From TrEMBL:
This is SWIM-type domain-containing protein. The keyword Zinc-finger applies. PANTHER family: MUDR FAMILY TRANSPOSASE, POLYPROTEIN, PUTATIVE-RELATED. Residues 279-311 form the SWIM-type domain. SMART domains: ZnF_PMZ (SM00575). Keywords: Metal-binding, Zinc, Zinc-finger. It comes from Aegilops tauschii subsp. strangulata (Goatgrass). It comes from the Eukaryota. The keyword Zinc-finger applies. One of its GO terms (molecular function) is zinc ion binding.
Amino acid sequence: MEYKGKKRFVRMFVTFKPLCDGFLAGCRPYLAIDSTHLTGKYRGQLAIACAVDGHNWLYPVAYAIIDSETTESWDWFMEKLHQAIGCPPGLAICSDAGKGIDSAIEEVYKYAEHRECMRHLVVNFKKKIHGKVFDDHMWPAAYSWTPEAFEAHMAAIHEKKPKAIEYLTRYHSRLWSRSKFSTSSKVDYVTNNLAECFNNWINKHKGMMLFQLVDKIRRNILVKMEKRRRIAKKLEGHRILPSVMKELNAKSRGLDIEYERIDHMKAEVSEGGEDGKRHVVDLDMRTCTCREFQVSGKPCKHAISFITGIRGVTIEDFVDDYYSVAKFAAAYTPVMPGLTDASQWPKKTHEFFLHP
């Protein structure tokens, strides 16, 4: 772009069709958006958009070099991302809800579910408001599955410090509690740790020259895609990813839960003890009134208890397809293109030069 009468490098967006195709075909409709500081001679930010596969493994979708975290830069990044992948049905986007990125997501992805990273929220919250009541109720509120549980924690906070609720309503209006999440994305994360994982993944490369950094990330992604393609091949014959089934089978052990059937696929399920909560499970609809089943896409403990008492069905039958081997394979089937080293790239004149 023109800057003080001269052409100047400002930003660069990078994605690859295999990544976009793999995301749309095999990953849950969820994106973590963040940026990290570059540490080389050319300072700026590396913006990233990451997804998650059925294994809960990081899936890079796009990255970019931007000069700073301004509204203009984030608008540009989100526009480029939208051009690459569109807006998949049920898309949820998680960010730190900073001023620039918040408005960019709102403008470009106005129909997506916009979540705020709970860890960033708590850091900002504690700068303004203090007290043990928040330690006891903020994180439990974030992890609450039902609106009733969430409101109970909010009421406890309001009783001690009403201004805290006013602050949250005014400055943190994005979704940060599982109780508010839609049931479309099947991702129950309350933090943006996925993006932090990407930052850690490339941390030692952030001091490279820009063209080296961009290419290094590309090569890392290429290696990751090929490795996971081989893993998918080994998993052929399974419907649901074995790691997911291992988690659910472990959850089925030692459950102190009783149920009364309503009909063949519906039941009232009660947790142990006199004060145990009672929920209604509908296996045909894959729902439980605790909401964990439909938000996560995996049977909750109430559903698992009921499923294990029915002949002819298994826990695996009620796991969402996003956790299937077929979806996992679809994410990694597209092959990243190979690329020669820089000495073999076409020479172009851009009327500016990045000095070493």
